[in-house]
Automatic annotation (TrEMBL):
Protein name: ABC transporter substrate-binding protein
Species: Lysinibacillus agricola
Signal sequence interval, chain numbering: 1-21
SUPFAM superfamilies assigned to the protein according to its UniProt record, in alphabetical order: Periplasmic binding protein-like I
Cited PROSITE patterns: PROKAR_LIPOPROTEIN (PS51257)
Keywords annotated in UniProt: Amino-acid transport, Signal, Transport
Pfam families tied to this protein: Peripla_BP_6
Keyword Transport: yes
Amino acid sequence: MKENKKLKKFGSLLIASSLLAGVLAGCGNGDSSSSGGGSSSGGGSSNGDTIKIGANLELSGNVASYGSSIALGADLAVKEINDNGGIDGKKIDLIKVDNKSENSEATAAAIKLATQDKVVAMLAPATSGNTVATVQIANKNKIPIVTGSGTAPNITVNDNGSINEYAFRTCFIDPFQGIVAANFAADNLKAKNVAIFADNASDYAKGLAKSFKETITKNGGKVVKEEAYVAKDADFRTQLTSIKAENPDFIFIPGYYEEVGLIVKQAREMGITVPLMGADGWDSPTLVELAGADALNNTFITNHYSSEDKDAKIQDFVKAFKAANSDKAPDAFNALGYDTIYYIADAIKRAGSTDGEAIKNALADTKDLSLVTGTFSVDENHNPIKTATVLEFKDGKQVFNSKVNP
């Protein structure tokens, strides 16, 4: 999901660029003296009884809600793994760095984790844009990165079709969410005439809109109106008036909670009562604060899991998370952070090494790994093949609606 929407600060960019120049000059390869099996082929090291894993996350800034939620899930996973003996007897040392929701800071954080902290793998940023900013560092230093919620296809596959060898994810990609939303609109809500209202400055939103439009059209639906907004807009009434005039029976709104909350609120105030739907970018408690619980009734999102799913593995996770977090029910980002640590730990264990290439190969070879957000195998593009969940908002709460198989 997701990309950073905040303007880069010149000073941070200059620092990151200087650091990057040093890394690309060859100063950033990991310590080859790792007791966990590191080698000169790259990656970091395990020191004594610990294995260092980095967490490059949005802990402050515009999308801190995402990174902070992933961090909570990751913390729980690390505690569980360490309490159960660690990885072959070695405890995980999770080293967190705040990328401040900025691309340049994400790059600087990745360089620090690779060259100073000597991590063997990284939990990559929550947003697609911030994750893309770290891919080159991962490839150069041969340190695998795994994003829990970066859904843009170009994280793992470049525009020319080449694979970013050291980049992986535990979430599904944007086009899949658009397809799921379109199928749900057509099959479950019987939508025929739909509108699309997307963030025109966001690759995340544009990718979702494109796959939704293609799929709903194939399903026999008609896109009667397309409108756009950009990040930081606060008044959407002009575009909503234009959409309302076309009398759609469904509106797809791919974007982030900051703007979506206001869009939903203003749409309902204008008398737009039809179903509204988005994707995992809506998933934040702040959405309810911005839109209001009543306004969110009859809205839906595609997401990675539901805490209400009766699956035993999910309910065990929910129970453990609540116990560690003052009875707070875990959201999808909590679950994805949790799963990402378990995915990395499983790969390190199967690799029998903290060598970056060995871990990378184990991540790529993952088959039928049972996690909270689904059992998945990794495809040739380093994307998981897994189920998606559709959630419905009822009185401000996310309620499990259905699961969709790939």
